[in-house]
Amino acid sequence: MGLELVSNLMEVYTAEDPMAFDHPEGDPWADFREIMRIEWTMDFKYKHVLGKYSKFFIELANRKFLATECKGCGKVWAIPRPLCSDCLSITRWKELSGKGTLESYSVSYFVPAFMEVEIPYILAMVRLDGADTLFTHQLRNYGELDNIKVDMPVKVAYATEPVDHPMLLMHFEPA
Ligand SMILES: [Zn+2]
User: Which string of DSSP letters, residue by residue, matches 54-93?
Assistant: First the structure.
């Protein structure tokens, strides 16, 4: 018996010293170049409570877009905040129309493997009508990249298929 005891073993190999030319006295890691590679399936559930933000997601499922309004200074937060970061007052929920303006965006041709999204991924920063802050989310259904312009009108669109996280109940698209 030996390595065949490791049922998920892929390979054992010798890693090269990537800095070999810099070591006049030889490879200092020579004793550690033998590498074992395994295939390891991890499957776990993560329980996540959405806390004071829950109502935002509950109403997204009802196709309503909520911000919060500060009872102290009147600032409207979208992304909602239970507590106003400016004056530390507790806020209240306020429904917005979901229409807004594209303030900025970035085009990403790389996303982590666990994100099953279309490439390129457009991350939009939107000032929703009635809000004092910017809301960041994916822009979809824009057609060609050249169609995306700063200051263009956009709107919240709602998921029509089941989603893996309530954040995916919405995205932005051209209005
Ligand atoms: Zn405030």
Answer: HHHHHHHHTT-EEEEEETTT--EESS--SB-TTT--BEEE
- CA of 134 from ligand 1 middle (Å) equals 16
Contact 102, 124 (CB under 8 A): yes
CA–CA separation, 99 vs 66, rounded Å? 12
Q: How far is the CA of 80 from the centre of ligand 1 (A)?
A: 12
Residues in the chain with pLDDT < 70? Answer: 114-115
| In contact, 82 and 68? CB cutoff 8 Å | yes
- Both tokens assigned to 159: 């998921």
Residue pair 69/91 in contact by the 8 Å Cβ criterion: yes
174 in helix, strand or coil? strand
Summarised one tens digit per residue, pLDDT across range 115-152 is 677 889 999 999 999 999 999 999 999 999 999 999 99
Query: How far, in Å, from the CA of 172 to the mean position of ligand 1?
Result: 27
CA distance 114 to 48: 18
Peptide bond into 82 cis (omega under 30): no
